Amino acid sequence: MRGKNNMKKRIDVNEYAGMITKALPKGILLNTNGDKFNSMVIGWGALGTVWSVPAFTVYVREHRYTKSQLDKTKEFTISVPLGQPIPEINRVCGSKSGYNINKAEEAKLTLEDASVIHTPGVKEYPLTLECKVLYAQEQDLSSIPDDIRKRMYPQDVDGSSPMANRDAHTAYIGQIVDAYILS
Ligand SMILES: Cc1cc2nc3c(=O)[nH]c(=O)nc-3n(C[C@H](O)[C@H](O)[C@H](O)COP(=O)(O)O)c2cc1C
Q1: Top-level CATH class of 8-182?
Q2: Residues 70-86: pLDDT tens digits?
Q3: I want to staple 149 with a disulfide (CB 3.0 to 4.6 A). Which of 48, 54, 139, 144 is the partner?
Q4: From CA 85, how far away is CA 42, in angstroms rounded?
Q5: Which of 73, 75, 64, 130 is nearest to 98 (CA)?
Q6: pLDDT digits (tens, 9 = 90+) for 124-173
Q7: Distance 98 CA to ligand 1 centre (A)
Q8: Ligand 1 centroid – CA 159 distance (Å)
Q9: Domain parsing of the chain, residue ranges
Q10: What's the rounded Cα separation, in Å, for the pair 61 and 163?
């Protein structure tokens, strides 16, 4: 669904940094718009400064539909709930793949066009960061501490699993080019 009469209240990301990092482990949305719009739940991310620009870095496993889109479009939006996450949105976007379904329809997301890039935000999770990918790098599993590698990258779990599996993450550093709250 497309939103109507949308308003964007511009924000200074630094003032919302605590809110964003607290929301992360409960699940926020990483949206991409390649062959179609798609949202996936992420629990890992890094807000900060890289190469003197404000940046948000995301970590995406090899077989996520999101990765195929990011590699094509090199941009994404981040959507953060202002309160608690909505269980149905987190269930659909965190356990199903854009390879199989249209998540915007299944999770009943209201999409709002972005201002600078071509990837919409999600009105239900109103705090929005528009990001352009500056750099992408696949993580080297052999350089990850043993205990973390065993827990996070079980080699007996196929990459199609929506949760922890054998696939490495690619880190995508996104320059934040716009930040606002949708209403
Ligand atoms: C709370 C939570 C946090 C997650 N964090 C990540 C993450 O940071 N990186 C990742 O690759 N997958 C993460 N996932 C798994 C993806 O959301 C899930 O595999 C999703 O179905 C992928 O969708 P896609 O194939 O449409 O990209 C997380 C799932 C949940 C429930």
Answers
A1: mainly beta
A2: 999 999 999 999 999 99
A3: 144
A4: 12
A5: 64
A6: 999 999 999 999 999 999 999 999 999 999 999 999 999 999 999 999 99
A7: 11
A8: 12
A9: 8-182
A10: 10
